[in-house]
Amino acid sequence: MGSWSEFGERFTRRTGARELMDDLGAALASDHQISMLGGGNPAHIPELEAVFVTELRRVVDDEREYRRMLANYPSPVGEERFRATLAELLANEYGWKLSARNIALTNGSQASFFMLFNLLAGRQSGGGFKRILFPLTPEYIGYEDVGLSEGMLTALKPGIEEIDARTFKYHLDFDALAIGDDIAAVCVSRPTNPSGNVLTDGEIDRLVELAAASDVPLIIDNAYGLPFPQILFTDIRPVWNDNIIMCMSLSKLGLPGLRTGIVVANEEVVEALGAMNSVLSLAVPTVGAVLLQELVASGRILEISREIIQPFYARKVQEALNWVHEYLEGTNYRVHKPEGALFLWLWFPGLPISSDELYRRLKARDVLVLSGHHFFPGFDEPWRHRDECLRVTYSQDSESVRVGISAIADEVRRACLAA
Fold it and tell me: Would you list the domain boundaries of the chain?
């Protein structure tokens, strides 16, 4: 075969997201024990899976619901009953003024960001070139490579608050934040993957004001937040208006295989996403929408998130933190304050090897993590910090997490002793 197109070259190259998914696939196919601390797969929570199995049986036993789930094309913006039901839940829960016309479904959050970033940024029809601004890094690994054009992303270095000797937190540096004419949208995640950071209500309010004043949308990646799945360990106030594009997902509920993304936005954005869905895939899957319909309509999805999912991960994160402090005692380490999501973000100031080399040494020991350097999309300044961090998933079984953290501590000590 001859050379690929520019599109082909861009989307077949080695990326952090591809490395993550290749590792995950290889681990699942392996015939020996691997500590899978690298991916973002949610935990298998028996009480939660029992709820989903019950709902699936309900749908399969109902001929009309079965056909609605599998046998008919939905609207290009997504299954209409689910969108209307979700709009009603959001309006009742938070007082947001919206309807089904403010909600589009996609083939998962990754597809949501591919469409949104390329809808807004890149070469402009009237001339010029615009970018997506991440006002705080590190950020989600999957943002890095979804742009159809090079240079579509730009990012700012965070402020670092030292909370205590072993804990730190990233904050927005508003003194450095300027939304220029070359910015198409501002994007943040809340909670943030990889660090578990949660932007404060004050930080979000200020971003809302700055984005509106610059006449650009604020995109909030809400994959782990409210109203579901509520993987949050701090109190926050959700916000939405016509200038905010809120992205949600069914994945972190425990249903990543359904590939159902949710975008809450003004009607113009929703219509555009529907048009793009029709070209890219004719329609989006209805399985997730039909499966969750009754849980959303009854409000039980809130109860499940509050009483099953959030307490489960609160226990998991504390367990993992205890092991971090036990095994890494005596090394120079910091951990970002875990305020949400599924990850611990470990920082090793002065680490004599790169985090990518540390990742490779751990992989050789059947421990999969992710090197921190992948999590700085659009940030091109030299900064040693990004080569001193690891993302560690704590959602997997406890023994795998313990073994993995122990191996991290062992390899960090070896690297420091050899320096």
Answer: 6-48+303-418, 74-298
Taking the CA of residue 357 as centre, how many other CA atoms within 13 Å lie in the half-sphere pointing to its CB?
A: 10
Give the pLDDT confidence of 243-286 residue by residue, as tens digits.
999 999 999 999 999 999 999 999 999 999 999 999 999 999 99
Q: Is the pTM of this model over 0.85?
A: yes
pLDDT tens digit string along 181-235? 999 999 999 999 999 999 999 999 999 999 999 999 999 999 999 999 999 999 9
Write down the CATH number for the domain with range 74-298.
Answer: 3.40.640.10
Residue 308 CA to residue 23 CA, distance in Å, equals: 29
Beta-bridge mates of residue 161: 169
| Whole-number Å distance between alpha carbons of 292 and 55 | 8
Q: Which residues contact 25 (CB under 8 A, 6 or more apart)?
A: none
Q: Which residues contact residue 367 at a Cβ distance below 8 angstroms, ignoring those fewer than 6 apart?
A: 34, 35, 37, 403, 404, 407, 408
DSSP string, 136-182: SSS--GGGTT--SSTT-EEE-PPEEEE-SSSEEEEE--TTT----TT
Q: Are 384 and 327 in contact (CB under 8 A)?
A: no
- Which CATH fold would you assign to the domain 6-48+303-418? Aspartate Aminotransferase, domain 1 (3.90.1150)
Coil vs helix vs strand at 336: strand
Other CB atoms closer than 10 Å to residue 237's CB: what's the count? 10
Other C-beta atoms within 10 Å of 176: how many? 11
Distance in angstroms (rounded) separating the CA atoms of residues 381 and 173: 16
The residue type at 72? N
